[in-house]
Design goal:
With 168 residues, the chain is an alpha+beta fold. Helices cover 44% and strands 14% of the residues. It has two domains: 75 residues, no CATH class; 84 residues, no CATH class. A hairpin with a 6-residue loop joins strand 3 and strand 4. The radius of gyration is 22 Å and the shape is elongated.
Length: 168
Amino acid sequence: MSNNRYLIDAYKRYTEVFKEDCFINPISKYDAEIIERLQAIVAEYQIEDLYDILTQYKQISDKDFYELLYNYKINNLLNKSFDDENLNEKSKFIKMNDFTCTRLQKRYITDYFLDIVIDAESEKEIPVIVLNEVDPHITKVIAYANRHLLYESFCSRNEDILRLDQIL
């Protein structure tokens, strides 16, 4: 069972109403959307065996689905030496090294500039990349307009600068 207390509480409420597990438990609209989104991500990265498992969600018993996921050889996936740059080159996305590990669609990045902000408490310089600078008074705003990516170090920001230069 998950450590997520919301999932645990939801399961408890479910078992209070139904008193026993069904082979296939009810599914909410959002459960379906979450699984569809996971399937899309897995398909994009061409992880076919995991995609095949995800497509069986709610088509087999929940216990069987859980066992399929549990038995999935995730260690094989982690042990494969994926070249992050090649993976992202094939992809439509680029994963940045900023504080939040932002994932951006490459086609919407048109330009960038570098900036530095000062943390008010520590007075430490925080390296920044600003994407797609536009005038704040413009009526039609492009994707990622004036998007600020904040970095822990100049080194991680510089790595992303090189990656941005490759796609622009």
